[in-house]
Design brief:
Number of helices: 8
CATH architecture of the largest domain: Up-down Bundle
Strand order of the largest sheet: 2-1-3-4
Largest sheet: 4 strands, mixed
Mean pLDDT: 95
Helix content: 40-55%
Number of domains: 2
CATH class of the largest domain: Mainly Alpha
Order of helices and strands: EHEHEEHHHHHH
CATH topology of the largest domain: Glutathione S-transferase Yfyf (Class Pi), Chain A, domain 2
Strand content: 5-15%
């Protein structure tokens, strides 16, 4: 049987949460990073909507990053044990999109946009995570085991470090500690150290 394959561009972007889940689970998979643009039609034709990331595992083919993450979180027991768990975890995971949307909108608005991002837009979301993490004991966002929500919020915080905007996190000690403890997890530390340093985004 062939290994599952995750198709995405040569960057973190919308595939990174799925990569982290797969590595945390110890799953063997092909991390297919598309190096050419325009994307070759034979690869694009594998997808449902002509978009990436795209994930193929046995008889299932999925596009849309949240659908892929949900599938992987369920498969590897990172999505709680009941419907209430699952919708809470989903709501936390989706909050990361607010931060990313604010970042890219601000980035393309120039320095004035980034100033607003640093002082207002990013703290608006991060202070919510700070409260969630603190009230849940500091180690997890929901429950007492690692979930998809933890990985999603870690990835958003990690992107802030990656873009050298970590000064934004100075007022949020719980978020900084949360980020560091996931960075050091034995299941993930080797993957984090192996990530390409020339990612495009």
């Amino acid at each position: 049987m062939s290994l599952p394959t995750l198709y995405y561009l040569n960057g973190r972007g919308r595939a990174e949460v799925s990569r982290i889940i797969l590595n945390y689970a110890g799953a063997k998979f092909n991390d297919h990073r598309i190096q050419t643009y325009p994307i070759p039609e034979d690869i694009r034709n594998l997808t449902t909507f002509g978009q990436f990331p795209n994930y193929i595992d046995a008889d299932i083919q999925l596009s849309q990053s949240i659908a892929i993450e949900t599938y992987l979180a369920n498969k590897y027991n990172l999505n709680g044990s009941n419907q209430i768990d699952q919708v809470k975890i989903l709501s936390y995971a989706l909050s990361c999109g607010d931060l990313f949307q604010a970042y890219f909108t601000s980035k393309y608005a120039g320095e004035a946009g980034m100033t607003k991002f640093r002082s207002e837009l990013a703290p608006r979301t991060i202070k919510c995570w700070e409260k969630i993490i603190s009230e849940n004991g500091g180690k997890h966002t929901y429950g007492n085991t690692l979930t998809w929500a933890d990985i999603s919020i870690f990835n958003a915080l990690d992107y802030i470090y990656y873009m050298k905007e970590q000064s934004i996190l100075e007022p949020f000690p719980a978020c900084r500690q949360f980020h560091q403890q996931i960075l050091e997890l034995p299941q993930l530390s080797a993957y984090f150290k192996s990530r390409p340093t020339d990612d495009k985004f």
